[in-house]
Amino acid sequence: MFHTILFYFFAIVLIGAAIGVIFARNPVHAVMFLVLAFFQSAVLWLLIEAEFLAIVLVLVYVGAVMVLFLFVVMMLDINVEEVSGGYTRYLPLGVLVAVLMVTELAQIIWLRSTPGISAAGFASTPDGYSNTKALGAVLYTEHVYAFEIAAVILLLAIVAAITLTMRKRPGLKQQDIAAQVAVRAADRIRIVKMDAVKPDTGSEP
Amino acid sequence: MIFGQFSPAAPEITLLIMICIVLIADLFVEDEKRATTFWLAIASLAVTAWAVLASAPDAHTLLFDGSYVSDALSQVLKLFAIGTVAIGFLYARDYLRQNKLMKGEYYLLGLFGLLGIMIMTSANSMLTMYLGLETLSLSLYALVAFDRNSATSAESAMKYFVLGAIASGTLLYGISWIYGITGSLQFDGIAAAVRNDAINSMPLWFGMAFMIVGIAFKFGAVPFHMWLPDVYQGARTPVTLYIASAPKLAALALILRILVDGLGELHVVWQGMIMVLAVLSLVVGNVVAIAQTNIKRMLGYSAIAHVGFILIAIFTGSQDGYAAALFYTLTYVVMAAGAFGMVILLSRKGFEAENLADFKGLNARSPWFALMMLFFMFGMAGVPPWVGFFAKLNVISAVLNAGFPILALIMVLASVIGAYYYLRVIWYMYFDAAEDRSVFQADIDTRIVLSLNGVAVLVLGIIPGWLLTLCINVIRTVY
């Protein structure tokens, strides 16, 4: 019972956030609504005991991808009126996609409710079962080769990106850390000896 | 061996370690002394080749829960890939230095690409194959865009990247179908599942068709060849040399492992698709090459025609055919490396010898290198006694043995058409007056290796026996 209440609560917030993404006038608000939507779906995943996916969704999408989105939105400086103007133009396409999705959902629900075709629910897992641990056990044994190659691809992507973008321009302001560390107080401040001058107090009363 | 239970995978592990060493060492090398990086890269290749010879077993050995396989085929392909990459690095060195492109990243990306090729040749599961392909493709995309100041390089890199991404997506879609139907990612598991008639059905063929499209894209077979001439022309010549040589070995591994290892039972189904690709490649490649005035583009179309030959050899589905495909690929790679090496040799600072007219009167400038170019062109055209003749002869005899005389006829006709544009280069070299008379600037070691490369094309043609025996033995132990 409590489980069901939780599900409906988070599902309603999720739908609300998704609607917010579309209707928000300010693109930054839309991105924040999207963050909320991702967070709610992560909770839904927790409810069906997919802890690993839930954590990854928060870490990767909320933590990394959405921050990038925010950066892009802020850098592009999108005009609010322009964005909201296209709403009616894309409405027919949106309705078409919505109808398609509703049909597909209805078919899946119909398929699941037909007896004999599919199982009633998720297979229950034994107590103390952790799917993070199970994934890790497979990832680092059976699929270790593929995992390592994926790491190599990431390294390659870094090298390729730097090759294509890094350039040495003349007059570039760069830090020389060794020089910064080796600097002495004497190089920075020069103490100048001057004769003491008595301030002119004549104007003061 | 030093890697204990992982010693069959020693070549890949060694190469990765060496890549990391080159990556770090290159940071501390000043631009003027970039030759250090070159020699480090050559040393990495030598160490890797030693690891292949010393540690990778000939016999069929599985590792990493069956996602890695070491056998005679992977060994031969790896050794040839290492050799051609080393030759390519050497040819590229003077060109890069003269054009102020001597950066460590060229060698680094080349080594990464080689790692991808080696992963592909040793892949025993679709996951490993795909990851190897991506490693190779990513380094190739970056290599094509390597010269940042050239707009054509950037354009062709973009084209290559977009089309390559579509091809990868197509391949992955096919993989997902086959995995979904057979329930296995490993080629032996797929082969076992396919024997069951309930599985061997329309949906499986559907997935396979997508995989063949992906493979054809990577091979550059017509009608999925659009990227190839543009990339060959747009990339700097050393990069074109790299793309034209070693990755063809990986493409051969891709098609042999997937279609023969995994889906060998479906031979009757994929035969038709491969035949259409092969015949179209033969005809379109050879005919369109005639109209080219840019030699890099011409060699690109010629590569498409050669792919047609390789695909026809695989189409036969016999051991003879696979051995012929292996022989053809190995010798083609040697000839392609040499031909692009000649284009590099004729280029110099600020001048790219990429037009056919730049070869005019080469005989007057350097009789020896004109002779070498003649070797490469005769080799590619398939004139006896150069090695290309035996490669083509093997394929044609395999096709005749399999009982397809009309295909053999098409191949002969296509070769005759192809001979025209190869001979035209020779005509330019010997019977036309030179337009520029500048002296070649290549170092002595480059000249020696290029000469050896040319002589190899002739010597392999005169005594092809050992390589042919090697190919037949390799195919026999594997299939």
What does this 3D model show about the protein?
The complex is a heterodimer of chains A (205) and B (479). With 205 residues, chain A is mostly helical. Chain A is 68% helix and 0% strand. Chain A has helices at 2-23, 27-47, 51-76, 80-85, 91-113, 131-139, 144-165, 177-182, 185-188. The longest helix of chain A has 26 residues, at 51-76. Chain B is mainly alpha-helical. Helix content of chain B is 75%, strand content 1%. Chain B contains 20 helices and 2 strands. Chain B has helices at residues 10-27, 35-55, 72-98, 104-121, 126-144, 151-182, 187-194, 202-219, 227-234, 237-244, 246-262, 267-290, 295-315, 319-346, 362-365, 367-381, 387-401, 405-431, 444-462, 465-478; strands spanning 61-63, 68-70. Chain B has a two-stranded antiparallel ribbon. In chain B, β1 (61-63) and β2 (68-70) form a beta hairpin. The longest helix of chain B has 32 residues, at 151-182. Chain B is globular and about 70 Å long. The model of chain B has no long low-confidence stretch (mean pLDDT 89). The A-B interface holds A 141-146, 149-150, 152-153, 156-157, 159-160, 162-164, 167 and B 9, 16, 23, 63-65, 67-68, 103, 105, 108-109, 112, 115, 119, 125, 127-128, 131-132, 134-135, 138-139, 141-142, 145-146, 148.
Put the structure in a nutshell.
By secondary structure, chain A is mainly α. Chain A has helices spanning 2-23, 27-47, 51-76, 80-85, 91-113, 131-139, 144-165, 177-182, 185-188.
How would you describe this structure in keywords?
heterodimer; A: 205 residues; mainly alpha; Four Helix Bundle (Hemerythrin (Met), subunit A); 68% helix; B: 479 residues; 20 helices
Widest sheet: strand ordering of chain B:
1-2
- Total DSSP helices of chain B: 20
The first-level CATH class of the domain at 1-81 in chain A is given as Mainly Alpha
* SS content category of chain B: mainly alpha
Oligomer status: heterodimer
Low-confidence region ranges of chain A:
none
SSE order of chain B, as H and E? HHEEHHHHHHHHHHHHHHHHHH
Indicate the mean pLDDT of chain B. 89
Rg of chain A, rounded, reads 30 Å
Distance between termini of chain A? Answer: 86 Å
The fraction of residues assigned to DSSP E strands of chain B is under 5%
Summing up helix and strand content along with how strands pair, one would put the structural category of chain A as mainly alpha
- Measured by DSSP, the beta-strand proportion of chain A falls in under 5%
Low-confidence runs of chain B (pLDDT<50, min 5 residues)? none
Molecular shape of chain B: globular
